[in-house]
Amino acid sequence: MQNKIQGVYLVTDRPLCIHHRLEDVVRLSATGGVSLVQLREKEATSREFLELAIHLKKILSPFQVPLLINDRVDLCLASGADGVHLGQSDLPWYVARKLLGPKAIIGLSIETKEDWETLQKEDPSPNLDYLAVSPVFDTKTKTNTKTAWGLAGVRWLREKTNLPIVAIGGIHLDNAKDVIEAGANSLAVVSAICSANDPKEATIALKKLF
Amino acid sequence: MQNKIQGVYLVTDRPLCIHHRLEDVVRLSATGGVSLVQLREKEATSREFLELAIHLKKILSPFQVPLLINDRVDLCLASGADGVHLGQSDLPWYVARKLLGPKAIIGLSIETKEDWETLQKEDPSPNLDYLAVSPVFDTKTKTNTKTAWGLAGVRWLREKTNLPIVAIGGIHLDNAKDVIEAGANSLAVVSAICSANDPKEATIALKKLF
């Protein structure tokens, strides 16, 4: 599935879906050619999160767009989603790999250079599908993030790894091209699609940059 | 493991561990003869929750006291815990059973008579290890609970099911005997052990009532 880690990557945020319901944002984005969708829910109960995951999986299947679950390996298993996105305070990636098996898509956020060094010590060739440089730019969407990497950070990680790089944080049409040129294989966006008047057109516009 | 669902059942709550650290409360309670421990963490990250689960599992193994995880099936799988306790807004019990297999201990909170009716419709002989009557009495420990069942509620569920019944909510030494007489196989307590000056003695005192 490594070829799926390219292009436009949608990370969901229900409160930011101001013009359309989440499921419509996801459907429209898939119509516009999104490559991957990550369901992120920070307030939902496990039951609500699971039901939403099952619903989005049904929406995305006809488009063959993989669905990743933020953090929750159990909800990935229970919903039939394609994998998980892990932050540094989630389950260790090798534990998730063990529970999900070899076919699951597993991505890991790298928030600091220390995170990269830790990963190298754990495994110089980690069985991961991508690394997420997080955050590339400062963002209002997520407030618990570390110092922004900037374009120099994307270039730094690009020199270190052959794994696909997903860039996330403060990415929009005006700066997206620079992030790709710095070495990102995929651009993860939240508000640029979730809050768009036309999520399909917003996806198409971003996709054209690749 | 059905015989484990009897006696004193400790549900953890770190903020209520005022005299001892959580791990010491758990160790002392095991020394006092606790039958089962449920790790409940509402604020921890997945990583912290997992590390705590692995730590408590190590503490409890020599006592052969099972460790259950509240809600998180993935953390149960990853920590080697013995099962999960599920509330009505957690994963459906049959999904948890599928993910955890036949040997896991799975308990389900029944908060209303409607919850019982739903369970009966799902499966007249559900593959569960216990039902938790929640809450038996009003409690300050958990604020999102439904109307208290009272002793009449315990008697009502006792007539309906042959599954072990765990009573939870507002149980302390003064009312524990009544709850057992109403039909509870096990008494789940939080503050009565977590906040006790002597968690071992608090466990022994409750255990004597059986």
Automatic annotation (TrEMBL), chains A, B:
GO terms for cellular component: cytoplasm. Pathway: Cofactor biosynthesis; thiamine diphosphate biosynthesis; thiamine phosphate from 4-amino-2-methyl-5-diphosphomethylpyrimidine and 4-methyl-5-(2-phosphoethyl)-thiazole: step 1/1. Mg(2+) binds at residues 71, 90. One of its GO terms (biological process) is thiamine diphosphate biosynthetic process. It comes from Leptospira kemamanensis. Keywords: Magnesium, Metal-binding, Thiamine biosynthesis, Transferase. The keyword Transmembrane does not apply. This is Thiamine-phosphate synthase. Belongs to the thiamine-phosphate synthase family. 4-amino-2-methyl-5-(diphosphooxymethyl)pyrimidine binds at residues 38-42, 70, 109, 142. 2-[(2R,5Z)-2-carboxy-4-methylthiazol-5(2H)-ylidene]ethyl phosphate binds at residues 139-141, 170, 190-191. Its EC number is 2.5.1.3. GO terms for molecular function: magnesium ion binding; thiamine-phosphate diphosphorylase activity. Residues 8-193 form the Thiamine phosphate synthase/TenI domain. Binds 1 Mg(2+) ion per subunit. Its cofactor is Mg(2+). InterPro entries: Aldolase_TIM, ThiamineP_synth_sf, ThiamineP_synth_TenI, TMP_synthase.
